[in-house]
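ok posting inputs for the pyridoxal-5'-phosphate job
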Amino acid sequence: MLDAFDSGWVAPLGPHVDAFEREFAHTVGVPHAVALSSGTAALHLGLHILGIGRGDVVLTSTMTFAATANAISYVGATPVFVDVSPHTWNLDPDLLEQALARRARLGTQAAAVLAVDLYGQCADYTRITEICARFGVPLVEDAAEALGASYGDAKAGSFGEWAAFSFNGNKIITTSGGGMLVSHRQDIVDRARHLASQARDPAPHYQHSEIGYNYRLSNLLAAIGRGQLRSLPLKLARRRAVNERYRLSLSELGGLHFLPEAAYGRSNHWLTCITVDPGVFGASPEEIRLELEAHDIESRPLWKPMHLQPVFSGCEIVGGSIAEDLFARGLCLPSGSTLAPPRQARIVELVASKHASAPRFRRAIA
Ligand SMILES: Cc1ncc(COP(=O)(O)O)c(C=O)c1O
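and the output
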């Protein structure tokens, strides 16, 4: 970062932007990447470049952050939400297949499928890729939460026409705010770079032949990104360790379950998420959240499904009951790479204190 200052490249372009793009593409295992001001910008440009617009439909997971669906709306398309699998909390391939088959029959095929790698775990890409190819629908990937995760031998972000990543403050690596669009296709990334720089034509004067956007990442933030990227292996190891410690200390408690890690890949464990069955556990996820909050510890409900959001209430939903159940029973536990074992032990203690067996344990200890 000091180098970025000293060199005078305090601008939305510069050597750190170029190097960050190269290093990031290498990390994900794709040939091309363009650094952008946010993950949302990456999603927006990616959809725009595929020619998706007014009158089009994009199928996506209902279990995601609003940015996924917002980007679909920015290009004038309509999101159709699909329920998730209880085994991965990601797009359910069977429901996706049914939805695409139905649309094919009606002659209203979707313009794209936008898969989301929720909480750092890849969607089931063998099945989803095959289904999309069979129906001739382009697949794109919202890997905002999944940097460093893998599916088989491939990395999150290497599936479909392109993938979007986020470096928002809460992500596994951060530039305070930022994003990346990656692709196997150079034409997509070149076009995104052009559109993200106000679509300025290659001329000495300021000439524009189409509408562009101010979506580039600054050289200073790219320098931060490069520093963060170097410590990605360490951050991944720490997130996995946090997840393992939670599992070790909490999975014995009846009525509490963890987001399953699918056998097909490796999660980056961006967040450790649980579901709680209040009848068995003895407390609701909200009661656990409030207990943590009373001790100044932040935990959060799972993403509220998009089909339950007032802003998307008019949109079609395929299934939906799995996502609704996850939302009702889910909780994201503190999961940062810097969460120290003593602090985590305190969180575990507070969660366990709400369990039905806690008074019995307390009496036994007394
Ligand atoms: C699934 C998902 N998609 C998109 C985004 C948007 O990324 P950004 O905040 O960088 O715009 C986020 C996170 O913020 C996300 O979690």
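notes: The CA atoms of residues 2 and 313 lie 48 Å apart. Residues 232-250 form the longest helix (19 residues).
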